[in-house]
């Protein structure tokens, strides 16, 4: 499997907005990097990748109180940024997975 695009800036929109604390955006970036590493190193079935996406979103949801404690919020803009990055990652690796469909039954907390 090819390596991920090292020119692509993960969560760039969140880093550019001071509303989102960098140290919390870093935590989400690490989750995305783990997801990328998984795609680079493991043979996967679509269902396994969908499970990993679900796990990633669940982990991000766990940061919600940390955002609130830091006068921020993982809001719609942040969710859209995360989904856009996941979609880019999947396209880079040629996985035809619709992230919106995978998350359709998953409520963001």
Given the helix and strand composition, which structural class is it? mainly alpha
Overall number of domains: 1
Helix content: 55-70%
Order of helices and strands: HHHHHH
Beta-strand portion reads under 5%
Shape category: globular
Count of β-strands: 0
Indicate the radius of gyration in whole angstroms: 14 Å
The overall average pLDDT, rounded, is 92
Q: Main beta sheet, described?
A: none
Pfam families: DUF5713
InterPro entries: DUF5713
Protein name: DUF5713 family protein
Q: What does this molecule look like?
A:
With 109 residues, this protein is mainly α. The chain has one domain (12-103). It has six helices and no strands. The longest helix is centred in the N-terminal third of the chain and has 20 residues, at 22-41. The model has no long low-confidence stretch (mean pLDDT 92). InterPro entries: DUF5713. This is DUF5713 family protein. It comes from Megamonas hypermegale.
């Amino acid at each position: 499997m090819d390596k991920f695009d090292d020119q692509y800036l993960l969560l760039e929109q969140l880093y550019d907005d001071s509303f989102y604390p960098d140290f919390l955006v870093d935590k989400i970036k690490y989750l995305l990097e783990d997801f990328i590493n998984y795609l680079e190193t493991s043979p996967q079935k679509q269902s396994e990748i969908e499970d990993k996406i679900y796990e990633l979103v669940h982990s991000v949801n766990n940061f919600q109180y940390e955002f609130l404690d830091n006068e921020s919020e993982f809001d719609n803009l942040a969710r859209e940024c995360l989904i856009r990055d996941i979609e880019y990652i999947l396209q880079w690796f040629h996985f035809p997975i619709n992230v919106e469909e995978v998350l359709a039954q998953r409520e963001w907390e």
